Amino acid sequence: QIQLVESGGGLVQAGGSLKLSCAASGRSAGGFNMGWFRQAPGKEREFVAAISWGGGSTDYADSVKGRFTISRDNAKNTLYMQIDSLKPEDTAVYYCAAKPRHSSLRGKYNYWGQGTQVTVSS
To answer: Staple partner for 16: which of 12, 35, 65, 121, CB 3.0–4.6 Å?
Structure first.
């Protein structure tokens, strides 16, 4: 129903910035809310940020507020995550996810991308 492909990860020094992208495709792509999650080695996957596909509502984990900004380009069916002031503890695989737009921004997501690696060095 919907396919997600992340890109934009890489190796960055602490204090630097990255912009992640998630390209969405498939039937009724505009009918989904979107989110970013991350998973560090040895830890469970955690919620990072979410946005309604129309862009009217956003939600962030407390640990990333003020540093991470989620956005979207409806014409391109693309989700973005601007990450500033990177810290070593931000190192993780970052996943794009989608769920029906009538559901809450937090909670269970139904569709997932393959992930993109972000590594932050000291």
So the answer is: 12
